[in-house]
Structures are given as C-alpha cells and as structure tokens.
Write a structure and sequence with these properties.
- The chain has about 350 residues and is mainly β.
- It has two domains: about 130 residues, Jelly Rolls (Sandwich), CATH 2.60.120; about 140 residues, Sandwich (Immunoglobulin-like).
- It is built from one helix and 23 strands.
- The radius of gyration is 31 Å and the shape is globular.
- The relative contact order is 0.15.
Amino acid sequence: MKKSFKVSIAVLLMAVMVGSAFAAPKKKTKKSKKEEAPVAASHYILDVVDACTELKIVPNQYGEAKKTDFQANADWTPLIKTNKPKKGDVVDVYFKLTSPIDIDVLTMALVDTSAAASYWTVLQEEKEWTLSGIKANVPVEGHFQGVLKNPCRGNLTMQFAYGSQNGKGVTFKFERVKQSVTGAKPVEERKTPKKFEFDISKDAAFVQIEAEYPWENGVQDRTAAPTCYQKVVDITKLFGNDLPIAGDEIHFKWKCVADKEIAKLYIRAIENTPAVNWWAEIDANGVEGTVLGENIKPNATNNFDFTIKIGQAAKEGISLVVWYDVGAADGSTLLKYVK
C-alpha cells in the first residue's frame, strides 16, 4: 500500500511537469494607450451685422405665449462652414440694434437650425439671453458671452424673439460693433451662373397636392376657403454642396400620371428652410411660376419637360411648389411615378 502511494505521487508529479512544459504561453497584456489631451477651446467673436444688416421678425408658430410669439434668426453659417464651433468653445456676440417699436423683453439664443441638429438645438449653456426696455427708434447695444454645451453641427444662428404684447412683426436694423473673428475665412461662393439637368421622376414619385388655406399667425385657418391646391417637394439633395445662385437655369424632366383631370398645373422654385424663415420666392418668374401642363387627363402618362431660372440664391435648400388654382381639379390630386 505504501509502495503504490509513492508511485501515485511520482506519476502525479510527472504529469504536472509534462503539463507545464506544454502549457500555452501567457499572453502579454497590452499597456493601455495614454488618453489624448483634450482639444483646447476656441474663441469666437461674432457681430450680428456679419449675419445680416436687417432682420424681418415674423410670427412664430412654435413660440411661447407672451415671450417668443414673433422671432427670426440671424445666420452666421457662411462664416463657419470650415470651422464650426464645438462643445466647450466660447462665443462672444455683439450687436447694435434699432427697433421701430418698443419691446419690453427681447429674448435671444444661439441655435443650430440644421437637419443634423433636428432643426432646433440651443447651443449655449445658458438657456437664453434677454435685453429689456428697448425703445422705438433708439439704438441699443448688446453683448453676450456663452460657452457651448452642444457642438454646432450645421448652422450657427442667433434667435431674436419677443411676445405679442409688443405688437406685430417688424424689421430690426443692425450696425457694426466688432469685427467678427472665427479663425476661418468665409467659403468662396460660386459667382458664375450655370445650368443643371435633372430627371425628378423618382424624386417626386408621390406628390399629393392638397388644399392650401390662409395663414394667420403662423397657422393655417382651415375654417376658411382654400386659396389654392399645392405641394412642396424638397430637391435640395440633388445639388450636393452646389446650391443654385441667381442666374442659374435648372432643366427638369418629370414622368408621372395624375389620378384626376387638371385644367392647368403650375410649378416654381422656392426655399423652405429656417435660413429664410421657412419661405422665400427664389424663382425668376416669381409667384407666377411656369405652366407645367394643361388639360391633364387622369391616368395618362405625362412627360413634363421644363426649365426654371433662379432669381435669388438659395441659402440652405431648394424646393419645388407644384400647384393649381381652386376649381382646376376636383379637390386634391395625386401625381405618381410611372415607369
């Protein structure tokens, strides 16, 4: 019994030695990389006059009653296209403003109005800035400093807003106080007009033309009679980073069918973005637009071929308004893609 015990011990020791000889080598643990040093904060000095010399204040359908019923945004985006402010950057805003009406409290905020920022993201840590006791036709200067809690992803704008107790929308005028400093030169805009060619048959695959009602304080009055039937179709993505300027010509082809008869159908170019307070007529033909077709028959294939000339440069986007007059069709109409 003793002998077998000793033999068992010997066998066990040999097994351990053999196992150790063929054991997998230990992996070397990698040393963690040193954390990168934080990027130093940048300092931006912005004068509102470099965004606009005049600013038309309009009804704000999303406003807070008696506080932001009327508003507009001054836009510095061209100044920061190659050097957007990031989280933690310091921004100093200066302005000298003249209002034609008394304003008890003017509310301001730095806002990113781009699609990347869900069309409305307040940038500075402070919820808002305010300026009180503004008198009609008396210039007043303002200076506010903020640290950005959110990065600017697309547009850098300054909202100016006030309550309805001050009256209706007016136009502010601005004078220079400081020279804006952003650390980057403004992007060179194209100066020479050009011609674009697009087939929008698939981009406008389903265009539901519906009743348009009179607008009152930023809201359509659906109790009133329709003013026309229309649909806005955003075609910004077709242009990439080369939005149309004044003098450009855009040649379109559009193959579609209508589900109803239309006596006369029109089309024109507009801009429908925050940079222009959601509506600007940029078509050289103005609100008259271009006749797209007449006596359009239901379920018949239409091959529209038309050219639009641009009368005013687009700032952030471009859309097409397709419309017809009341009585030109039996209510709303669908235009859809056909192969």
